[in-house]
Amino acid sequence: YIARGMTSPLFASILATGFTVAFLHGAMPNHWLPFVLVGRRQGWSAAKAIAITALAGVGHVLTTMLLGLLVVASGLAFGDRLGPVLPFIAGGLLIALGIYYLARSGSGDGHLHLPFVGRLAPAYGALGAQAPAAVPDRTAVLGLFVFLTLSPCEAFLPVYLSGVQFGWTGFVVLSVILAVAALAGMTLFTWLALCGFERIRIQRLERREAGLVGAIFLLLAVAVVLLER
């Protein structure tokens, strides 16, 4: 059943949603701007800054996967009892989360994380100007790694929940999607910033992150409920 289900339109929708959420999440400035600022202050090459971004991103992904493991394990533990109503429970939770994120966006709080970037650089157009003083590379790398590892991608957890019916194979596939998309977003925007991309203002996208994720969750809720019936 699981093998057949993983070729279904529902699983394809979950994968597409997961990739979009993870890439959008990784593209937010609080996932790459600190590496640009610290890298410039430390005098890192572009290759080194991108490599460190990827390293910290791995910790970020692993923490999210650990939380996803708990979500999937809980879902499978109750799956036999819930049976046919599980898609409706998942769909209902997605709708609730979608409305919550849309409400946050409407209130002006479009961030899914604390605005750590704001404490590093007051203005995006002045990258590097407000960067912290140079410290030993090991200290800088450890600080960046811990910062990102301790802020998992909570927006991806509902995606794991939606894929519970596909078992541990679904968990592995979704985890690969999470890693590829999140690391691609982080490293891509780190590279673009180092190339001067900061001249393009992206605060509007950052402010709308919660709204975009909320809308995506509502669409996924429809897919989970309708395609599973």
Offer a few descriptive terms.
10 helices
Q: Explain this structure to me?
A:
It is a single chain. This protein is mainly alpha-helical and 229 residues long. It has ten helices and no strands. The radius of gyration is 19 Å and the shape is elongated. The protein starts with a helix and ends with a helix. The relative contact order is 0.26. Mean pLDDT is 77; it is low at 113-131.
Helix content: over 70%
Q: How would you spell out the order of helices and strands?
A: HHHHHHHHHH
Q: Indicate the structural class.
A: mainly alpha
Strand residue content: under 5%
Shape: elongated
Please give the count of helices: 10
Number of strands: 0
Specify the biggest β-sheet: none
Radius of gyration: 19 Å
What is shown here, in short?
Helices cover 71% and strands 0% of the residues. The protein has helices at residues 2-5, 9-27, 33-42, 46-82, 86-106, 137-149, 157-162, 167-194, 203-207, 209-227.
Ordered list of secondary-structure elements with their pairings:
Elements: H1 2-5, H2 9-27, H3 33-42, H4 46-82, H5 86-106, H6 137-149, H7 157-162, H8 167-194, H9 203-207, H10 209-227
